[in-house]
Specification:
With about 1500 residues, the protein is mainly alpha-helical.
Length: about 1500
């Protein structure tokens, strides 16, 4: 308000009502120009908006009257002397009433409004010619209201009250025109003049404003005057406003719309909205911001709101709706909540989803929503939050809707809504968390949804980030891997999005690392912390001090966890030189590892070794460029020669560590293995630096000299412990390029046998250190010489000191003549030889020199041959023999150091006990003696084509460099290579070896599966699985070529045998190798595309390249621009054609997994052009074809057993998943005709030849599950269709026939369990369908109930039979089934009674019978409904069993039910059967 002050020396102020007036001190006698901005909100600020329109005028009148109590009613001033002379009668009347016309921009009143009205009334009532004077006054008013008049703005705005005798003046909110309207006989004339002037101003070609110093638009001021007449003149006002609106300018229309709420009566609001619809055919014009805000405040009927919602939906989904307008449109939509009905709320939720989903699609195609105004987004969801708070029905409906959405329909909007629901009512947080948890388990939600939230709802996510963080914190504790992986990936994404929560995320992860109850959780938290440090080193470095408490937890961690924790701590303590180091953390880490190294406890010492290695790696990484250094080949004499800095600190730490552990073989081997692992890690895509080149030169010289001194020998032949040793397997001389090489280099050998039979005292010369030390040598050599190993390539093909009979044909006979201890020594030599060959082949596999490559392939052939020779030796060896360890990370409680060997008697007594070999090397000396070869029992070793290695064959894993052999070597289809092919080609044996190694690595990296006895779970390829996946990319094309070659060979052989799969030619040794290699290729692809990180957008480029590699090379350029879903579709169709080449059940399952993974990676992006439904159906049909084939083992016998059943179960689920009702009906009809043959011994189904009576429950369970699953999916869409329930009962009766024909306890239990689920669904969702049909078609209802009665009667017999013979697994279901059937019986009875059909319902007693119809004699009669039975779903009911062989319904099985019995609530005198 604008006020004016004037100092006076008169009496003090009278009391003024503070609620209706505003006062300011008077400044001077001079008049100040003032202006009043009159708005509808200000003019009515003290009048409740909820008052009836007929009371609004009187309320305002009363307020003015109250404001003037105690105030002088007359002025001492002479008005005539203070105002100009009037120009007409209108001005004269105003002046006589006490109005000053020319004082500033507002009329100055000499008294309050009530007095002014009274004076005006007196002037006219006391006049002689009342009628003429009113007409004259009307003419003057008409002239004064003219846009060109100086009085028009003054008449329409607030007045200044300057009453005589008052010290202060005040500004009134009421206009002079309002005073005219308070006089009854003047009101109609004034309204007429006002409406005429409104029409004149609204139709003017420009915006007309007043002529005051601060001019204001006239139309809003004129419209405001009508606010007190909406009830008394509603018809007249609306009629004139409608006409004016049709002819008004666009700006005038907006002014009318803005004031429509106050100038139009509520009964006219619907007509006004219809007027708007007529005038604005375009939704973009209709939903102007002004219009939207007005529409939100109008009182509209349901019909009008429905029309309006359609137009809102059209506009909001058109892509033209501005972000600033959308919140108000949503607010307008939320008005439907006033109806508060289920249908209206359901329509609202559907509309909201359609709006948001359409906008996301538009934003994905066009501009990103990250530029959306933050205020608009917060305002939008603020309105939604208010709606959820105000309407309980809306809240619950949204909650139910989010729980029942399909996977395709659940979007980022629904995730945000769930967060809002928790924010509104935290009591429901557990239920909503379970909704998210279930969807994540089913993979309906992936981390891609957070990427969408980041794109569309960044601001609202930031507002509710604490809620999401709490949910993720709980999900991290989940045992389910899918849920915990989702939380882990979500943390990574959120860490990058919001800098404000980075410390909070780190604190939560540190809290999880201290959780002693779950080792898996600790490992996951540590891995995530390390991942964050690698990808966001600067951000984590800023929070370095938060990590210091982790050092207190180190002693509680396992060794593998210690590696991750120390990796994190050391690289934060010694970061990239560009980042600021944390000195406090450096001191703490250094102190901890020193204490651990000198600790006598084996486990803590190993933790110290691991910590030192990580500290060495962090210290030495100071190179920021990959430039070659000229002096990198220069030798460094000692540590003192290194320049001061982190490189020298790392070298000193190596020396200190070696001196601390030099007496322990196990610790030294672990130290070298860890060094090789950390130095071999690649750092592409991370902030890590390269190793200091001077440090590498020093370390390389040290370890190379140590290896040469300890393990390279030139000694002559000798005999130790009766075993003659000799140089063998030297292939260096085969190389023509060695002509100029010194002869002593070609004569060196690796001293394996001598170190096994006669170990040396020094730990660094132990045979167990051989492979770890050489691995360290080759890693350092590669760093120093840019991946070249030319300087040590003589070690690849050099001779090995071995027993003289090592490669003899009669080696088994010689082995038999040794004593038990000698046999163990010989076997240890074999194993150490294999491990040496594995580490040397892995080291040189990446070298491209032709001569080196030939020696690598020759060594690979020898390695495979030696591994085959070990198999019969193991069969002859003593049971307590255990392969020498190849890893040294075993925990202290499992340590093998200082363990004593078990004697012969003890070994015989504890035949199953496995003892690790003694690493100390303290062996007794045995006098040499001559070996006499005697006859030995021939051991025929069968080749296991399914499992390459037995449980006792524990070899050192190959390194990832072995992949290069697959990429660069040619392949021939022979399992025994010709002499000239050796060293030049890969044969079937070599291909199988390489594929088996890669598959094992993929299983460990992708599925996180590893041998429980292999404690060294963090192999290099496991440390960073993404690197291993990238390494496999180049070999995909070659593996695919091998797959084509193998498939062609299989197809050719199948043609030769006329596709008779039992032909013996298909089980020959070479063809078995072909089948095995083909299966490994398929398995490799299946594992490769099963990697969970493919859903991450950062891997999209790698996924695109991987899919492209599987296409023909000639088409790469053409397909390069194809999207991932399109390439996935092409790849899916490509692998689908290999179905005819699959000859083993395991390969069939892996092919199914591969196709399923391709469908998954192809659906990570929304692409409607991809025929996903068609591919799903093709995959289902493929499973059907595979199930209808007869499968044979590699030996030619029928495939059977537990693993076979697991594979069959997977194919059954794939075949029945998403099958239609028609296909289920057809399959059931087929089985009903064939199932009787299962009662014959060893007979299988004709259409499914792998299913006999023993494993038929696998197929039967699949049928039961798909019936319930498909029904559950359809009832959520439309449960009122009776034909849905009729078709399901028909299927249920088909299952009943099968159960009756094939009497099997497991089938009984499965049928009862799923019938119970059906009855519950019928009670919950199906009763409305019965109610709708009872009058229209009673015969149809009767048929339905009779069909259902067949099922319930059998269930009754089954329960009675099971109770009589005490099948406890079925008895546990009886209470729930009885309650369900009783509920259904009474519901049906009530339904019939409500429709006057109760006479059709009959309830009687049934005789208790067993499954064969024989009566069961019991003291009490039984009960069952004569018409039907069903139940409602209990809260504790679980989903169908997912195990393969579980839930056995046998005669002696124990009860697995957790359902409480309700027997205590039932009367003992009940006539219902106690058996049921």
């Amino acid at each position: 308000m604008y006020k004016r002050f004037k100092k006076r020396t008169q009496k003090p102020l009278n009391r003024i009502d503070e609620n209706t007036t505003m006062k300011v001190p008077r400044l001077a006698e001079t008049t100040t120009n003032v202006s009043v901005e009159s708005t509808s909100a200000e003019s009515e600020e003290n009048i409740p908006a909820s008052q009836e329109h007929t009371q609004r005028f009187l309320s305002q009148h009363s307020a003015i009257l109250a404001a003037t109590l105690g105030r002088t009613q007359s002025s001492s001033r002479n008005i005539a002397t203070l105002s100009r002379q009037p120009n007409n009668f209108f001005e004269l009347v105003l002046i006589r009433a006490g109005v000053q016309l020319d004082q500033g921009d507002s009329l100055v009143l000499s008294c309050d409004h009530v007095s002014i009205v009274s004076k005006l009334r007196d002037i006219f009532t006391s006049a002689s010619s009342y009628t003429d004077k009113m007409e004259t006054f009307k003419s003057g008013l008409n002239a004064a209201m003219s846009p060109s008049s100086k009085l028009v703005q003054k008449l329409l705005t607030g007045c200044t009250v300057d009453a005589a005798g008052e010290e202060q003046i005040y500004q009134s909110q009421n206009s002079m025109f309002m005073n005219f309207l308070m006089i009854d006989f003047m009101r109609d004339s004034c309204v007429e003049v006002l409406l005429n002037k409104i029409e004149e101003v609204a139709t003017a070609d420009r915006v007309l404003s007043g002529r005051a110093a601060m001019s204001m638009p006239l139309l809003p001021l004129m419209l405001t005057q009508l606010r007190y007449l909406t009830a008394s003149h509603k018809v007249e006002i609306y009629g004139r406003i409608e006409g004016i609106f049709n002819r008004a300018t666009e700006s005038a229309k907006l002014d009318i719309i803005a004031n429509a709420e106050v100038i139009l009566d509520a009964s006219m609001h619907d007509e006004f909205v219809e007027l708007l619809n007529i005038n604005y055919s375009s939704t973009e014009e209709l939903f102007h911001m002004t219009t939207v805000q007005t529409l939100s405040n109008l009182s509209l009927s349901d019909r009008t709101q429905a029309k309006l919602r359609l137009r809102i939906l059209e506009f909001a989904t058109s892509g033209h709706c501005p972000d600033t307008t959308l919140p108000h449109l949503i607010r307008l939509l939320l008005n439907i909540l006033k109806m508060d009905t289920d249908d209206s709320v359901r329509d609202l939720i559907s509309s909201l989803r359609e709006i948001f989903n359409s906008r996301h699609t538009a934003q994905s195609d066009g501009k990103s929503a990250t530029n959306e105004n933050k205020k608009s987004q917060l305002e939008l969801f603020g309105f939604l939050e208010l709606g959820l708070i105000r309407s309980k029905r809306f809240y619950q409906a949204f909650q139910r809707s989010s729980a029942s959405l399909s996977a395709e329909e659940f979007t980022s909007f629904d995730l945000i809504v769930l967060l809002l629901l928790i924010h509104v009512n935290e009591d429901n947080s557990l239920y909503i968390e379970n909704i998210l948890r279930r969807r994540i388990k089913l993979e309906h939600i992936t981390v891609m949804i957070l990427e969408e939230v980041k794109l569309h709802y960044r601001h609202i996510l930031e507002q509710h980030i604490s809620t999401l963080m709490n949910i993720l914190h709980d999900f991290m504790r989940e045992k389910n891997r899918t849920v915990s992986d989702f939380a882990k990936s979500s943390y990574s994404i959120l860490f990058k999005i919001f800098n404000s929560i980075q410390k909070n995320i780190l604190k939560k992860l540190l809290e999880l690392t201290c959780d002693k109850s779950s080792p898996h959780l600790t490992t996951m938290a540590l891995e995530l912390l390390r991942e964050l440090q690698r990808k966001s080193a600067k951000d984590v470095q800023n929070c370095a001090t938060l990590l210091i408490p982790m050092l207190d937890r180190i002693s509680d961690l396992t060794l593998t966890q210690t590696r991750v924790a120390m990796d994190l701590l050391c690289h934060v303590a010694f970061p990239d030189p560009k980042l600021s180091a944390c000195l406090q953390l450096q001191e703490q880490v250094d102190m901890v590892v020193k204490k651990q190294l000198i600790n006598s406890t084996d486990n803590i010492k190993k933790q110290g070794i691991i910590g030192c290695v990580q500290l060495i790696d962090a210290m030495a990484r100071i190179e920021n460029d990959a430039a070659e250094h000229d002096d990198s080949l220069r030798s460094v004499e000692n540590v003192d020669s290194l320049p001061d800095g982190r490189g020298k600190m790392a070298a000193n730490l190596i020396i200190r560590t070696e001196s601390s552990i030099g007496n322990s073989v196990e610790s030294l081997a672990l130290f070298y293995e860890e060094l090789a692992t950390v130095f071999n890690q690649r750092n592409e895509g991370t902030s890590a630096c390269d190793l200091d080149y001077r440090f590498i030169a020093w370390a390389c010289d040290v370890v190379t000299f140590r290896f040469q001194a300890s393990f390279v020998t030139e000694d002559v032949q000798e005999t130790i412990k009766g075993i003659k040793l000799d140089y063998q397997m030297n292939i260096n001389e085969l190389d023509d390029t060695n002509a100029n090489t010194e002869s002593d280099v070609l004569n060196i050998g690796i001293n394996i046998s001598k170190l096994v039979l006669s170990p040396k005292a020094k730990a660094c010369e132990s045979i167990y250190v051989l492979a770890p030390l050489f691995n360290c040598v080759r890693v350092l050599y590669k760093h120093r010489h840019q991946d070249s190993l030319e300087g040590i390539n003589a070690l690849l093909g050099c001779a090995i000191v071995l027993p003289s009979f090592f490669e003899d044909e009669n080696y088994l006979a010689v082995f038999d003549n040794f004593e038990a201890e000698q046999q163990k020594d010989v076997l240890s030599i074999y194993f150490h030889t294999v491990n040496w060959m594995r580490v040397s082949i892995s080291a040189f596999a990446s070298q491209r020199d032709p001569a080196t490559r030939r020696r690598v392939l020759s060594r690979l052939g020898e390695l495979i041959r030696i591994e085959q020779r070990i198999k019969p030796l193991l069969a002859k060896a003593h049971a307590d023999f255990v392969a020498p360890p190849y890893q040294f990370l075993t925990n202290a409680k499992h340590s093998v150091v200082n363990q004593k060997r078990v004697g012969a008697k003890a070994a015989a007594k504890f035949n199953a006990t496995v003892t690790e070999p003694d690493l100390t090397g303290n062996q007794t000396s045995i006098v040499d003696f001559t070996i006499k070869v005697g006859a030995c029992k021939t051991v025929k070793t069968k080749i296991d084509f399914e499992q390459m290695y037995g449980p006792r064959e524990r070899y050192r894993p190959m390194e990832v460099e072995i992949i290069m052999l697959l990429v660069e070597q040619k392949f021939v289809l022979n399992h025994q290579l010709e002499k000239e092919q050796v060293g030049e080609y890969l044969g079937l044996l070599e291909l199988r070896f390489l594929l088996e190694d890669m598959v094992q690595k993929l299983e460990a990296a992708v599925l996180r599966q590893q041998d429980s006895s292999d404690a060294d779970s963090f192999r290099p390829h496991l440390t960073k699985p993404e690197d291993f996946i990238c390494d496999l990319l180049p070999c995909l094309h070659e593996v695919n070529n091998h797959l084509i070659t193998l498939a062609e060979a299989i197809d050719k052989e199948l043609t030769n045998v006329n596709h008779v799969y039992s032909n013996l030619d298909l089980f020959k040794e070479q063809f078995n190798y072909i089948k095995s290699c083909f299966g490994l290729c398929v398995r490799l692809f299946a594992l490769y595309f099963a990697w969970s990180e493919w859903t991450d957008k950062s891997q999209a480029e790698l996924l695109h390249k991987s899919l492209l590699k599987l296409q023909p090379k000639a088409q790469w350029k053409r397909l390069e621009k194809q999207t991932v879903p399109q390439l996935a579709t092409l790849t899916f169709q490509y692998f689908l054609k290999y179905e005819k080449s699959v000859l083993t059940l395991s390969t069939a399952v892996h092919l199914h997994r591969l196709l399923r993974s391709l469908l998954k990676v192809g659906s990570t992006q929304n692409d409607a052009s991809q025929p996903r439904f068609q591919q799903d159906e093709e995959l289902r049909l493929l499973c059907g074809k595979l199930l209808r084939r007869k499968w044979f083992h590699y030996s030619g016998s029928l495939d059977k057993g537990g693993q076979c059943n697991i594979y069959l179960d997977e194919l059954v689920k794939g075949f029945l998943k998403k099958s239609t009702t028609e296909s289920q009906t057809e399959l059931l009809s087929e089985l009903v005709k064939q199932c009787s043959i299962l009662n014959t011994k060893d007979k299988a189904l004709a259409s499914f030849p792998n299913f006999k009576k023993a494993n038929f429950p696998l197929l039967f369970r699949g049928l039961c599950e798909v019936l319930i699953h498909s029904l559950s999916g359809q009832v959520s869409v439309d449960s009122r269709r009776l034909n849905l329930w009729e078709s399901t009962v028909e299927l249920l009766n088909g299952l009943l026939i099968i159960v009756q024909q094939v009497e099997q306890p497991r089938n009984f239990g499965l049928f009862l369990k799923h019938s119970l689920l059906f009855l519950k669904l019928l009670l919950q969702h199906g009763m409305p369908a019965l109610e709708s049909i009872v009058r229209d078609d009673p015969e149809r209802l009767t048929r339905f109930l009779h069909e259902l009665q067949k099922v319930t009667r059998f269930l009754h017999q089954l329960c009675c039979h099971s109770k009589s013979i005490k099948i406890t697994a079925i008895i546990s279901y009886i209470p729930s089934l009885r309650e369900t059937i009783e509920t259904l019986v009474f519901r049906v009875k009530a339904l019939l009674a409500a429709n006057n059909c109760h006479s059709a319902f009959h309830m009687g007693n049934m005789i208790n019978r067993d499954l064969h119809g024989d009566s069961i004699i019991t003291p009490s009669s039984s009960f069952a409904g004569g018409e039907n039975s069903d139940e409602e779903i209990p809260a504790d009911d679980t989903s169908v069993d997912e195990t393969v062989l579980g839930d056995v319904m046998g005669m002696t099985t124990a009860s697995v039910s957790t359902r409480p019995s309700d027997g205590s609530r039932r009367s003992k005198s009940s006539s219902r059967s106690k058996c049921f």
